[in-house]
Amino acid sequence: MRALSNRKSETEAKIGELPILVLSHCILNRATRWWQKGKPLQKNQGLSFQILSLLSDLKIGVIQLPCPEFTFCGNPRPPRTRDEYLSLPGFQQHCRRLADEASKYLKSIIENAREPSVRILAIVGVERSPTCGVKCTPIGRGLDRRYVEEKGIFIELLGESLRKMGLEIPFIEVDLDRPEELVEKIKELIN
Fold it and tell me: Which domains does the chain have, with CATH numbers?
């Protein structure tokens, strides 16, 4: 059985390797984000055009992760912090199940893609998300809300699940208000 490393030799990369980005769901579908009453629909349509255009130009594939918040609470739902989501009965288990399923899927993508092989460049989380934050996540309750340098619930569990399967995939995050930053991060990843 071949090793589950996400790194390939330079020779393999030259023969044929498809780079892939794994995206948090709302990067392509902002309709799953918590809905602000009175906010115009255009503001919640996502980064689809900018991101898909760049990925197409660079020949990078995409895998879209599920949205734990939407699949558990639907819309409309109130904005919540990491702590508030953790206090919802069953939510952490829901995130763990989704993380384990996503990890198994990513492992199968890497193992079963022989010609061409697949290289997962990164998993892209969402800045300021209680579930998909990579570096900036809201915590606290009520008026005691603040942002800290901490992973969101789903991203943390996904990282744990990937490590258990022997996969090392870097995590990066995007600020949905500044899509141009993601474009620069993607360019850095492929160079």
Answer: 15-33+42-190 (3.40.50)
